[in-house]
Design brief:
mainly alpha
Amino acid sequence: MDEKIFDLLIQLEDDLVLLYKKLSNISRFSNIKDVLEYMMKQSSGHSMHIGKIPASAKKPSFNTSAVLELHNKLKDQVFIDTVNESNTNKCLDGLSRAEEIIGELYQGIAKFYQKTGDYYYSIGSMIENLSQEEFAHRDALQKQKR
């Protein structure tokens, strides 16, 4: 997943700042100018907060080249060991061990994706918290009605 979502969220909040600023400059809204300025500060704060999310939630990285290198070394060694071994049972033991190593490698890959899932879950939680703040802003604006 591309992390440009943070850039999008920042853009949305910055656009809200501009909206509230434009509205606060219209004389008809002078009676709610303080609320509009408050909303500008809130949106600006959200923008700054969102900008810090990528640093606070480190995305796991995966080294595919290392996996491929390990696989190729294992495969090459298993081939050499198997063709040079005259005892078929020992060949089967070697092939079995290679499959075990590949299984362990897959377990490592699975753990990586589980950590990646945790990363995205934490990002989702942070964005959900922002949504709750937006609902609080909605409610605050509704309270300004006369």
